[in-house]
Amino acid sequence: MELSRLSRRAFSTLAGTTVLGLALGGSVSSQALPRSGARGTVPTGPPPGPPGADGQRHHVTLDRYSLLVDGRRLALWSGEMHPFRLPSPSLWRDVLQKMRAYGYNAVSARLAWNLHSPAPGAYDFTGVRDLDLFLRTAAETRMYVVLDPGPYIGADVDAGGLPGWLTATGADARTADPAYLRHADEWLSHVNAVAARHQYTRGTGTLLLYRLDAPHRAQRAHLREKLRADGIDVPLLPSDGPVARGEAERTRDAAEARRVHLAHLAGGVTLHHVHTAFGGTSWGWLPAPSAPDPAYDPTAGIDEARRPTDRTAPLHQLGQLLRNVPDFTRLDEAAGVRAADARLRVRHLVNPDTGTHAYVVRNDSAADVTSKLPMGGTDVEVTVPGRDAKLFATGLHLGAGRKLAYSNMQPMLSMSVGKLDIAAFVGRAGEMAHLVLDCPHEPWPTRLDEEAAWAYDRGKLHVTVELAEDRLTRLRIRSGKTDRTMILLLADDAASLRLWPYETPSGRVLVHGPALLRDAALDGHTVRLTGDTVEECGLEVWAPPGITDVTWNGSRLSTSLGRAHSLYAARSLPGVPELVLPALDGWRRRAENPESRPGYDDSGWTAADRKASFSTTPVPDGQPVLFADDYGFHYGDVWYRGRLTGAAGLESVSLSCGTGARGLLMAWLDGEPLGTHRVDDEGDGRGTWTATARFRLPDGLREARRRRPDAGASSVLSVLVRRTQHAQDDYKAARGLTSAAFEGAAPKVRWRIQGAAAPDPVRGPLNNGGLYGERHGWHLPGYDDADWEPVPSPGGDRRQGVTWYRTTFRLDVPPDVDASVGLVLDGAPGRFPRAQLFLNGWNMGEYAADRTAAPRTFVLPNGILRTRAAANTLALAVLADGVAESGPGTVRLELLGGAAGGVPVEPVASPGLRR
């Protein structure tokens, strides 16, 4: 995790000034917050409304506490989503709507240069690379955008997002090298031509912040000048400051997520960044060696299958708090507070405008700790689970003169809906919640659920509730001195995930019940809701006065007014219907790798005869450059063929290679297998795995060569190298073969190399590698496999090399159901294959079972996956070592999740074989 910070002097200097063009350095310790009473420029008040492309110009500044949008404080709660990791543009809307529902008000989007640029000067922003569509969708879902186009983005992407062709140039990336800056400028020019049209400052979109990759001052100045020349006038965020922001890397569980983000809040952060909000898929040859699996981030709040995970609840609660309770956008350090038990560490903060006090209490021990904590003049008993954290508050205004005196629960939201003041507090299931309100006038509480108990004593209303799993407890509080009614809601984590506040242009709405609320619109007397259900559930709506009718996904519901002043649906909303997936059968098989045969025609291949390279890997003395990048082959498998002369008496061949994680090398001599070598060492720590494979010629092959008078005249050495990933830290390290040595003879070798054919014009440069089947369209829909061998399932033979399997299947998912489907390769003991998966021609990633035979699930994104009674083509390219039985074992479809609702999904272009 990273906490970017700003010095007090620099922060004071910047107070109240524009952040357009910021590129300063500096830091501020989270221990150096301003003391209570320090003068601020803008008082605490309502946050700006949800953003949109409204045609109005907006002013973005900052002071010592937070961003200011049109003079209002904004606590940015940004979640990272990489559009390129969801190659189905229709589903961008699904994820953005889920992020908004879970409390995010901004999406941080990185762009992968390598996905857009297959060659110098060539750029593609269409299809799954349509940046304009993504930014339009973000505006339509009322989300701010923090754009990060790099040029280097890291993000466990091949070469950190730098294009493969850059490896074969003299440009020194991420420096002020003029050659690099020319390439980077060209990339940013194409990005900025789109981004400038969507800036919030111009009212034409919701792009709020622009993030720079500028580790060096000279480069930073150049890029800043470049962006301004391109018309980018939103604030710039260099990678090393100056705006105080908190970035949380992957967290192991919900407890760690709470600790990390509450620590940022305690440190004065108001620019919060969640890494990552949506995990996504590193499809094709996109993943860097640091994260070679297709599933990018299993720890994300929304997983690869677009489902909430156990980290969603704390992120949802804190996001809603920052969005709905402005007190937390301006906090000063307050007098120190200690818990009775020293295992609890306390950070005490105060809002100087509202008098709200916040207490971030952290427990780094393994045991649950119950202790007295001084809050608001009272010693309050609190419990913090082991290795967890909690946020408590006192003095929080809850409407109509009522204030929170203290509580052992965390506030989640406080909002006004018509003449209702609604406040929600959250805790863990099984806890006894205790909440105390300061009431200026004697309240008239009404228990709406049996679990609640209350008592009023000397101006304080005490409420106790035993929290149960997925149960919302309501309490209504009235007073004869005000016409405003308070609705107090108490929830555990699960119940909090069914509470959905929504701000419309005509007023606020709060919904309880469904699995997701996507949208709410007020239309006359009707509130129109759209969202998802997973299981049958009730629906409860708090809406402004005059709203009497409710529709759900277009259907009108019969409702009644409840005692909590909410509209109740008379009938439960239906859950998702049962879905049945087809079995995968009808497989056909065909072996390939004709490149291993001595008579194969490689005259069209590229001669590997260069003498010098821009690689950081030295070229071996006396040998030609064999590095794949130098010949334009940057992704996927690479074939080599060496014609040996003077090889009589050859005893063994040693082949050195450089790969990413899980590298693999196969070799043949005159069509006879020499063996397979797996690059299994730990690498160099920078993302490069190197190995030297020594193959002794089999006895039978050596005997046959001795019997042939012409054996030394000419031989053909064929080599296949897999996993040519580029490291993020050393993107110019050689990939593919690096050298060859021989024992028993000193042959002369003329090398040729072949990798991927021309990049797929729709799927992009990272979709295909250099396998024979890929170069000839065996992975594409429409390929005629009628003459392939029918087999019951993939696998079974023991030949060294590549074997392809193909089948087709159909799904029939109802149009109002969002089904997330995965492809499961079960694995089998004794089988250690490599398999590349293609769905409708799209490369979904690699199944690598070298170390384990455990099942692996590949998420098949809707859009690429045809779910509405249309044919899907599934192809597997299986690499086998010739020793273990090949094939992944059972291959099956699995329903990963389903919801009644979803978003309309457009088929992703998946062109078939061109004849």
TrEMBL record:
The keyword Glycoprotein applies. PROSITE patterns: TAT. It holds the Pfam family BetaGal_dom3. It catalyses: Hydrolysis of terminal non-reducing beta-D-galactose residues in beta-D-galactosides. It comes from Streptomyces mutabilis. Residues 325-499 form the Beta-galactosidase domain. The keyword Signal applies. This is beta-galactosidase. Its EC number is 3.2.1.23. GO terms for biological process: carbohydrate metabolic process. Keywords: Glycoprotein, Glycosidase, Hydrolase, Signal. PANTHER family: BETA-GALACTOSIDASE RELATED. It comes from the Bacteria. One of its GO terms (molecular function) is beta-galactosidase activity. Residues 31-56 are annotated as: Disordered. Belongs to the glycosyl hydrolase 35 family.
